[in-house]
Amino acid sequence: MKDTHAYHIDGAVPETPENRPGPETWRETTVVGTRQPRVDAYERVSGTAVFPHDVSLPDMLHGAVLRCPYAHANVLSIDTSEAEKMPGVQAVITADTPGADMPWYQRRDKAYGRLFDKHCRHEGEEVAAVAAETPLQAADALRAIKVEYEELPFVINDDEALAPDAPPVQDGGNLAGEPSVRERGDVAAGFAEADVIVERTYKTPCQIHAPMEPHGSVAKWDGNRLTVWDSTQGVFSIQETLSRALGLPMSNVRVIGHYMGGGFGAKLETGKYTVFAALMARITGRPVKLFLPREDCFIVTGNRPANTMTIKLGARSDGTLTAMEYTSLGSNGAYRYNAATSTMAAYLYQCPNIRTEDTTVYTNTGKARPMRAPGFPQCAWSLEQAMDELAAKLKIEPVAFRLQNLPEKAQVRDGMPYTSNQLAACLQRGAEAFGWEEARKKKPTEGHLRRGVGAAASFWVYSGGPPSTVIVKLYSDGSVNINMGASDIGTGTKTWAAMIVAEELGVAIDRIQLEHADTATTQYATSSGGSKTVPSDSPAVLAAAVEVKKQLLRYAAEQLEVSVEDLELRNSEVVSRTDPEKKVAVTDIERLGRQGVVIGTGYRDPNPEGKVTWPFAAQFCEVEVNVRTGELRLVRFLGAHDSGRVLNRLTFDNQVFGGITMGVGFGLIEERVLDQQTGAMVNANFHDYKIPTMLDVAASHACLPIDHPDHEFNSTGAKGLGEPATIATAAAIGNAVADALGIRVTDAPITPEKLIELLHAQRKEA
Ligand code: MOS
Questions:
Q1: In sequence order, which residues have a C-beta less than 8 Å from that of residue 384 and are 6 or more positions away?
Q2: Could you tell me if 540 and 469 are in contact, meaning their C-beta atoms sit under 8 angstroms apart?
Q3: CB within 6 Å of ligand 1 — which residues?
Q4: What is the pLDDT of residues 333-384, one digit of tens each?
């Protein structure tokens, strides 16, 4: 399909139909790969889509959570007697409520805390919950609960957590497991071989997921059956945790998540609020809705932890990397997570001698959660800036330097082949489309404005796979129903599913309906995270459609008295290849009419063994810096992405622009700020914690999909995109700033204040 949008580049025309990889039927597609508006676009923009936050049931109560105001404290006593007498209050629960004092875990994990823990290890830890007739009555009741706290000394800074006198956050101390170390070759020998070495320490901010829809649930009991509407990335995972927490068979727990207003990794876990809602609904015999206030979403529902990374890189004068040493420190917050960042450093470039070390500590801060490519944007910020610095010292153009050091095979285990790796194409074609060489030579300077360009590369490590089961039903009138368990977390899952079925069965998109993300009525799928929904579930959708088609052809063959092999499905008609007179419209297939429906079940096949199935990307940007004010303006951005086959070009572009926007927040704007005196977060709202708006992103965005189907990986040839879209962004900006000013900014976000200080220091030196 011809791309007409002014900001898109249409250089990424796939291979000719003859040499395009993949099954014959998908060499030329008419629906897959086009720009398809979302199947639920009308519902989303008209406000008729029912998000969990919109769910309102008859007789419903409203829940609220009382949280510890201190960074570290013991709860000595809780008195709920006043609160229980407040108008409208129907339930109050605490650690002292029978049935509410339970261990806390996710799915099949070991417990790592309690539902209510009287040892509060961070600001916002849960102390009590109430349910009342109205939200305001619930809020009033919280204020009437009397809690006696013993304040404890706290530690909120990662670099202080391991000091001998640091207050212990967890019983075992503040080191969250031994540092994880990866070693390859001989690092000392590698550096001895190097002609040029660079070494710096980089820091990245603690970033908050900040989804538009707050975290929350609505819980309702029918006898011993529980139904929960949850703003989640995966209903089946919530079902499993709830069933275990409440001691119910999984079949008694129904979780529905038809829409959700953003998660970015924060909504993979089950929230304690969901269990509170379920417990209070059981106590009162009425449905309970419990959504968190915005402040709580900033403080307790997760973050991308801050990281400190020291990277040392060595290369020979010909530009060959010889050694890398990489250490990373980050915090879980108060409970278990993993703040490691080193994966990309270990595998992005060919390097025989490597040592990486990741240390994770506990601090008295809100628990971290996976956030859009956990660890990777942090790593890119250090690795990709170090690569640029090294390239400059070697006097090698930075894109060429990267191309020179790309591995032939993934350096995992003894070297595993890739099913596909188009990183070189991302770098080369991205540079070409961006006008990289020209932009590097010609940097317009106007008054106190300086321009620069930067690039950064990345891969992503999760790739998807089984299990996934999908059912496709074709009704006697030719319309179709798709049944799949995956959540559409705003990324367009339902739309590509409809496109695949439309492609395979020749049914118009508007004749297709979807059932999804409901544990009681749809098929098992893993959570929508890890950028793996497309590669995990799209092959199951295709397999189900193929199954329907097979049956249809068999029924038509009986009716037309020809062999099945002779038939094909074209535009809702089954036609003989040899005798075009022999044909029957799908809706005239007699057996379909008698049966009422044809049902196909599709399963996700396993991935190839011993192969690496990662997506890749290179991003390019141009910045303009005002050297008098420190203001930075993004002039343009280009994302060149190898995510295998493009299923929907429209939502592909959406993901790339959205990922870049989130990366702009990470690189330039966002940062959790903690009060050093109290340990409390001081910018826990959208006024003080800024996320990028249209005024902060580049005026010109381009998306360049390499669109190289990976059919060795899976049957649709598609790889993931959601996380790859944000990994390289901040690093590319950092490199562009260095190009514009000759200043290497090591601490993200790059604020005007930091730039002014660094410019001042630069002038003093000169
Ligand atoms: Mo993602 S951080 O797996 O939603």
A1: 456, 457, 458, 728, 731, 732, 734, 735
A2: yes
A3: 233, 263-265, 268, 370-372, 374, 529-530
A4: 999 999 999 999 999 999 999 999 999 999 999 999 999 999 999 999 999 9
In tens, the pLDDT along 664-696 reads 999 999 999 999 999 999 999 999 999 999 999
Structure-token match 């010292």, residue found: 393
CATH number of 5-30+464-603: 3.30.365.10
Classify strands 180-184 and 225-230 as parallel, antiparallel or unpaired.
unpaired
Cα–Cα distance measured from residue 70 to residue 167, given in angstroms and rounded to the nearest whole number: 14
CA distance 363 to 101: 24
Distance (Å, rounded) from C-alpha 287 to C-alpha 57?
7
Ligand 1 centroid–CA 23 distance in Å is 31
Kindly give the distance from the C-alpha atom of residue 266 to the centroid of ligand 1, in angstroms, as a whole number: 7
CA of 534 relative to ligand 1 center, distance in Å: 13
**Average pLDDT over all residues of the chain:** 95
CATH 2.70.70.10 assigned to domain 55-67+73-152+215-291? The reply is no
Residue 98: CB atoms within 10 Å:
6
Spacing, Cα 352 to ligand 1 middle (Å): 31
Distance 636 CA to ligand 1 centre (A): 27
**Residue entry with tokens 């278990």:** 336
Ligand 1 atom closest to the Cα of residue 529 is: 3
Ligand 1: atom nearest CA of 370 is 2
CA–CA distance, 634 with 729 (Å, rounded to integer): 11
Rg (C-alpha) for the chain, rounded Å, is: 28
Per-residue pLDDT at 5 exceeds 70: no
Angle, alpha carbons 135-140-145 (nearest 5°): 125
Q: Which atom of ligand 1 is nearest to the CA of 267?
A: 4
Q: Which CATH number fits domain 307-463+610-765: 3.30.43.10, 3.30.365.10, 3.90.950.10, 2.160.20.10?
A: 3.30.365.10
Cα 496 to averaged position of ligand 1 atoms, centre (Å): 20
**20 pLDDT exceeds 80?**
no
Residue nearest to atom 4 of ligand 1 (CA): 265
CB 2 within 8 A of CB 10: yes
The span from the CA of 403 to the CA of 425, in Å, is: 10
- Probe residue for ligand 1, chosen from 723, 726, 727 as the CB with the greatest number of ligand atoms within 8 Å: 723
Closest atom of ligand 1 relative to the 369 alpha carbon: 2
Peptide bond into 249 cis (omega under 30): no
Please give the Cα distance from 743 to 755 (Å, whole number). 9
pLDDT at 282 over 70: yes
Give the CA distances from residue 395 to residues 12, 386, 391, 537, 737, in Å, rounded to whole numbers and listed in that order.
31, 14, 6, 46, 18
> Residue 667 has what DSSP assignment?
I
Q: 380 CA distance to ligand 1 centroid (A)?
A: 17
Q: Which atom of ligand 1 is nearest to the CA of 371?
A: 2
Handedness of CA 541, 546, 547, 551 (dihedral sign): positive
Q: pTM of the entire structure?
A: 0.96
Of 701, 715, 707, 718, give the one whose Cα is nearest residue 496: 718
Pocket test for ligand 1, best of 209, 232, 269, 372 (most atoms within 8 A of CB): 372
Looking at the chain, the domain(s) classified CATH 3.30.365.10 span 5-30+464-603, 55-67+73-152+215-291, 307-463+610-765
Cα-to-centroid distance, 532 and ligand 1 (Å): 9
DSSP states along 229-278? EE--S-HHHHHHHHHHHHT--GGGEEEE-S--S--TTTTSSPPHHHHHHH
